[in-house]
Design goal:
The chain is built from 16 helices and 12 strands. With 443 residues, it is an alpha+beta fold. The strands form 2 sheets. Strands 1, 2, 3, 4, 5, 8, 9, 10, 11 and 12 form a 10-stranded mixed beta sheet that branches. It has a two-stranded antiparallel sheet with strand order 6-7. It is globular and about 75 Å long. Bound molecules: coenzyme A.
Length: 443
């Protein structure tokens, strides 16, 4: 019995209580500073939500809430969820809230939505996320910020000017946000590099993994698998161009080309390169969740179901991106299922070194005993079931959008395979891990 079903079987006699995922859609994921540079995360969110709602054919009045997130929020619109509602065709009376769980932000949006549905507070909820790293906030240095505050308080022009005395050129330079872990001072890339060393993940293994993920993503695009889950977006300001595909997928990728790239996070001894990392992107993704009974009553055919989920965390000073190895066993236990039951394993690829480290932990008896207090490891993942249509390395990773992308992608693949269950994992800043167990339409 799933976590949800166990706790909610009292709601309607005889009814199975899962949350149905009835639709999912995303924009293409494009390189930051490119096609979407004139769009904010709110714009991208509204674009995808409008199109998703229209394609779903559900009457606007049926929606009960929207949950949406963004990882690097803009100080100009701090509550993205509500702004997305107000920029969309949805009723202006639709309540909305913003979620944040670093790279698992839209997983959090989806599980918040599921919780609301299972509590009986809502029947139809939109969940998703967006990111615009083209529009990331640029900060003033602490000294410049203090001078600006002092100047705004000063009464005379000379006093205002005096506030800026003593500032160096360095203090006046804008400060971009850092993808840095505050407690360790290491960037994501440096943290992944540390994991590669500690777990003995070779450069060759990372590049072979990345070449295969690129190949799978290119195949999925070429065979039309993404046609229904990725919408086209008119590119402002002139709207004479349409972005219709992810532009990180490199169909010309070969292992040999990847092997030649220079390491970036430790330029001398490192193994992590631009080719085996996820890139910096803009994009948005969303899903529609419904009470299973409501979907049935309305004759809506689900893509699948959200069966169970779990969040966990590890000490950021240990192995920052190992969160999935902690969250997955919990989610599977709550689902009452085991790793071999999974027909698809969709794992967010922050870095190949992180995916390979997570997989190593899944299969390690020592990790199970020392870190999880379990006698047996979770097990090995069959490579044919892992990210069958590519992951974040080739497809891209607009942080807030990735979780919602993965839910749709995993469920559509389950549908094609006529599979029963999928496991989805996301590693995130702060040492966080998220895991979701999804049921296919037939399960
Ligand atoms: C790794 C990172 C620094 C690379 O950024 P970048 O230098 O702008 O990357 P580029 O796309 O320009 O690629 C660098 C080079 O590698 C090459 N390259 C990248 N992918 C390749 C591939 N699949 N095949 C062949 N060559 C490739 C590019 O062509 C480019 O070559 P050039 O210098 O000759 O033009 C950046 O993507 C990054 O910071 N990623 C990590 C993001 C992160 O931390 N996310 C959080 C994780 S959850």
């Amino acid at each position: 019995m799933s976590h949800y079903r166990k706790h909610h079987h009292h709601r309607e006699e005889g009814a199975r209580h899962r949350v149905a995922v009835v639709a999912g859609l995303r924009t293409p994921f494009v390189r930051s500073g490119g096609d979407f540079q004139d769009l904010s995360a709110v714009d991208l969110g509204a674009i995808v939500v409008n199109e998703l709602v229209a394609r779903s054919g559900l009457p606007l009045a049926e929606f009960d809430a929207l949950v949406f997130g963004q990882v690097v929020p803009s100080p100009l619109s701090s509550l993205i969820a509500r702004e997305v509602v107000l920029r969309s065709e949805l009723p202006r009376t639709l309540p909305a809230h913003t979620t944040s769980r670093a790279c698992a932000t839209s997983i959090q949006a989806a599980t918040d939505a599921a919780d609301q549905i299972l509590l009986g507070h809502a029947d139809v909820v939109i969940a998703g996320g967006a990111e615009s790293l083209s529009d990331a906030p640029i900060f003033a240095s602490r000294k410049l910020a203090q001078a600006l505050v002092a100047a705004s308080r000063a009464r005379s022009i000379p006093d205002k000017l005096k506030a800026f005395a003593g500032l160096s050129l360095r203090d006046v330079a804008p400060v971009p946000p850092a993808l840095k872990e505050p407690t360790t001072g290491l960037t994501m890339g440096e943290s992944a590099q540390k994991m590669a060393w500690e777990n003995g993940i070779s450069r060759e293994a990372q590049d072979r993994y990345s070449a295969e993920s690129q190949r799978r993503a290119a195949d999925a695009w070429a065979s039309g698998k993404f046609a229904e889950e990725v919408m086209a977006v008119d590119v402002p300001p002139r709207f004479q161009k349409i972005a219709s595909a992810d532009n990180n997928v490199r169909t010309d990728t070969t292992y040999d080309a990847l092997a030649k790239l220079k390491p970036v996070f430790d330029r001398r001894y490192g193994t992590i390169t631009a080719g085996n990392s996820s890139p910096l992107n803009d994009g948005a993704a969303a899903v529609i969740l419904m009470a299973e009974g409501k979907a049935r009553a309305m004759g809506v055919k689900p893509l699948g179901y959200l069966r169970a989920y779990a969040y966990a965390a590890t000490d950021p000073g240990d192995q920052l991106l190992q969160g999935p190895a902690y969250a997955a066993p919990l989610a599977l236990a709550r689902a009452g299922l085991a790793l071999p039951d999974m027909d698809v394993v969709e794992m967010h690829e922050a870095f190949a070194a992180q995916v390979l480290s997570n997989l190593q932990a899944f299969g390690s008896r020592r990790f199970a005993q020392e870190k999880l207090g379990r006698a047996e490891p979770l097990g090995e993942v069959d490579p044919a079931r892992l990210n069958p249509n590519g992951g974040s390395i080739p497809l891209g990773h607009p942080f807030g959008a990735t979780g919602a992308r993965m839910i749709t992608q995993a469920l559509r693949e389950l549908g094609r395979r006529k599979g029963r269950h999928a496991l989805l994992t996301v590693c995130a800043a702060g040492g966080l891990g998220a895991a979701v167990v999804l049921d296919g339409p037939e399960a």
